[in-house]
Fold this sequence. Notes:
By secondary structure, the chain is of the alpha/beta class. The chain is built from eleven helices and 13 strands. It has three domains: 3-85, Arc Repressor Mutant, subunit A; 91-164 and 272-312, Periplasmic binding protein-like II (D-Maltodextrin-Binding Protein, domain 2), CATH 3.40.190; 168-268, D-Maltodextrin-Binding Protein, domain 2 (3-Layer(aba) Sandwich), CATH 3.40.190. The strands form three sheets. The chain has a six-stranded mixed β-sheet, with helices on both faces. A five-stranded mixed β-sheet has the order 9-8-10-7-11. A two-stranded antiparallel sheet has the order 1-2.
Amino acid sequence: MNLQQIRTFCAVMTSSNMSDAATKLGRTQPAVSASLKALEDALGVTLFDRVGRKLSPRPEAHYLLSEAESMLAQSRRISHTMQTMTLGQTGSMTAVAMPGPAALLFPRFIASLLTDTEGLSLSLFARSSAQIEELAKAQSIDFGFGDAPSSQDGKALYECRVISGQCCVVMDPAHPLADRDAVHLSDLDGVPLGTLQSDHALRRKLENQMTAAGGTLHVFLESQTFLPVLQFVEAGLCAAIIDPLTATHIHATGRSQGPILVKPLITDFRYRYGIYWPRFRAISALGENVRCRWEDEVWRQLADISAAPRLEDP
């Protein structure tokens, strides 16, 4: 039994005669008769009484009609779903991002893409960059967004697109540097700063460049992410060198209009982001589409904040 036979059967049952059914199907009457006979043989049931050229449906045929119509409706739904999955308009996706972007920018962007889609199954998580890298190695996600990889370990298991952007400096309006149009790293010599934990690449870069400039790094606060640091910046307790997407978050939440000033950092000091995806996982068209669109969005946001984005080696 196949769908063609079922379609033929339904056409015969809902037509006035065999000729009408053949016209609906765009087939010859002998082909329609042969398809019906093949269906009966497959089921082991006689569905019609045949008197000359006239077919009279048996009770079994009336029962089969309701089931056959359900089968065809399900077939149409499956076909539609598969087509929309191929176009990336439906399906499932598992995406992760480091806590900063996961708080606003990442989910807001994904939501904007999916407003006109149906039948979605979405898993969205905030994880540390190290965890995102491990999830990509384990083939457990469609894609992730975090810091660029810190080593080449396990690189054969995943792909990573690294995009960097120039960092910014944030402070409260009463800060001694608030009247500057831009800030040099040397201006932050001895200034209380909020920054990331000691094993983070940005923290190590900050320590190295401050030492090379002959300055003193005054760490007032260290944190896993920049978002908690902003509370202390607003309170006037410290300044901070932040990544450009955190600066975008500040602008998006309206905080740059009052409690926090965002200043360009003149010294070359770049933050490296990584977009991860597993090398051996079969990624849905939806996941592939959203990942590519997110990469475009990262480039756009970095350009909008004059962070001079560029592609780098992992």
